[in-house]
Specification:
By secondary structure, the protein is of the alpha+beta class.
Length: about 190
């Protein structure tokens, strides 16, 4: 089977961090780069050390030597997620935390979303699924924090990823892509 990612596909590679270890932000960032390097080597035939990454106008990262390959990195809790494709892609992973979300929901939800959140039988699940969609969207568009989260239109295409029942993850792109989900042991 050809492992190379083809146009119309998105590779969603993820790894689980060691639960026993306390990771510093720089350690998690390093794991993200290791996962990106693995995916580029395995699925694009690109071996580059060190990876040369630049940022576009609003901060979206890109590969300096391979701008035709789009990628996005996310991490939360025990997981690091990397999405790669031949077109713009955004990805997010979030641990579903059981905490007070009502105040945060008021800041990120549109009036219709807030109504649905308040009527939801599982507020944490509803909130984090919505949060992941919004994060993946702004990473896909490159808008980052330049866009108010209440106004995300959710155009394009989105798919949730099943990596762990205690987490919510997903990818966003302009059009439907075939998702290749791969767990990597780093």
């Amino acid at each position: 089977m050809d492992k190379r990612v083809q146009p119309g596909e998105v590779l969603a590679a993820f790894c689980c961090l060691d639960e026993e270890r306390k990771y510093k932000p720089k350690d998690i960032s390093r794991k993200g780069r290791e996962l990106l390097a693995y995916a580029l080597n395995t699925h694009f035939g690109i071996s580059e050390d060190p990876l040369e990454i630049g940022t576009r106008e609003r901060g979206k990262p890109y590969l300096l030597k391979h701008p035709e390959i789009e990628f996005n990195i996310s991490h939360s809790g025990r997981y690091v997620l990397v999405a790669l494709a031949h077109e713009a892609v955004g990805a997010d992973v979030q641990e579903i935390e059981d905490r007070e979300l009502d105040s945060l929901a008021k800041h990120v939800c549109s009036p219709d979303e807030l109504r649905a959140y308040n009527e939801s039988g599982d507020k944490a699940d509803y909130f984090f699924r919505l949060w992941v969609r919004k994060e993946a969207y702004i990473k896909w568009t490159g808008d980052g924090l330049y866009r108010e989260l209440k106004t995300i239109p959710f155009d394009g295409w989105f798919q949730f990823l099943d990596i762990d029942p205690a987490y919510c993850a997903g990818v966003h792109a302009a059009r439907p892509l075939t998702v290749r989900l791969e767990e990597v042991d780093l």
